[in-house]
Amino acid sequence: MSEFFRSGLAAAHARRPAEALAWFERAVAADPADTQARAWLGQSLCAVGRRLEGVEALRRAGEDLLEHGDLEKVCTIIGQLHGWGDFPGALVLARSAAARAPENLQLQHLLAITCGQLNLTDEALAAVETAEAMAPGAPMLQVFRASLEADAKRFESARSRLEDVLAHSPAPREAHRAHKELARVLDALGDYAGAFAHLDAAAPLAQGLPEFQRLDLRFIPAMVAANRQGFTSQLMGRWRAHAFEDPAPVFLLGFFRSGTTLAQQVLAVHPDVFVADEAGLLEDVKRELHALVPGMGNVHNKLDRLDAAGVAQLRSAYWRAARGRYGEALEGRTLVDKFTLNTVDLGLINTIFPDGKVVFAQRDPRDVCISCYMQLMPPSSATRHLQDWEGTAQFYALVMDWWLFIRPRLTIPVFELRYEAGVADFEGTFRAAFEFLGLDWPEDAETFYRNARGRFIASPSRNQVSQPIYGSSVARWRRYEAQVERVADRLAPFVQAFGYA
User: Fold this and answer.
1) Is the whole-model pTM more than 0.90?
2) Which residues does the chain have with pLDDT short of 70?
């Protein structure tokens, strides 16, 4: 292990990615055959926003490790590629590794996960069945297999498997997921009372899981409260007449399960559109803002202290992050930044992109909450609120109350894309969306679902948007009227405001 490598590790563990990157670059330059250094170089490149270079370095490191037969480290690289959203790269590596070592349980499991994320359900099922044969009865594999069976519409098989898992008193994490998956299966089979009972059984288990416990429930409510106080039309429209060098993207947002993923897939059909899928590009803007205006203070206070040059610097930070992640794919195309909970950051968006546009996905609040509660979502400061029924309604009300507050104060144009209208009149609704973006109507828009197979979609909706549009999710809440009644008072203002009464 070289001194360069040791110094890079120390910087990486101290969470100083730029410093770590410099050391790992020196380590690779000194010894190009050092695969471990190249893997860490890839991680560091991704950490500083140079994702395209980073995942390429990780892919090459994985290939070299596979050549040397170091399967344990290959598994680590596949997991890292998952973490950076490079599931296509992980698929190539996982397929090659699993073919070389078909008896390796971890590789088969990773191959199944990778295929599942890419809507390659049959291949995922084959891999998880192989893994399960090596570890029969393992609850984690059983639940995962049942999830894939549900994706393949093998509901009875999935139901039997999940009930068997729960009958053997699994650990809380496996029990939580089993209850959630069984609820999804029972919903598909028409047993709505049974489905909700399993959702309610999952709720207390989620509260006890460390990955949720460590998240602060006060974080987003505090952010919304500060935004309400500080973002005015005057602040947001201050630079409206200024000509910035960097263009403005389109922001596709709303609430979880409101139709943003459907809209993303349809808009992405157009050859002149590139969709950034839940990439969190605004986080780079916030980091740049806090570097420009150090010290304590809310985002709106710091924005208020910037001149036009400062705002231009924030826009440059945004595009630096976007190009580091997507490279030449952005050139000459309209960037649609789909990050659902960017709704909370509409004040920031309007202030630094006063020439931007917003597509706001809207859906019946009752359907949104049912669908959110039904889903297994990765832990975050937002999804922490969706782990029990009352919390789901409360969080929806928090975000949508903010939307109703900020909407009339925005100075940028907004297109409200109603999910139910898209189902009832697909072409009319989405043709209007393309017109809003200044784009012609793509003739293959209605076959958007063909593009989902083999692509990573960062949403639980990935399975739904891999099939033609369907109407069974409209007024879904009516199957759960008794349960919806428990939160009816909390949702009533939004049902009324959005015209769903």
Assistant:
1) yes
2) 451-468
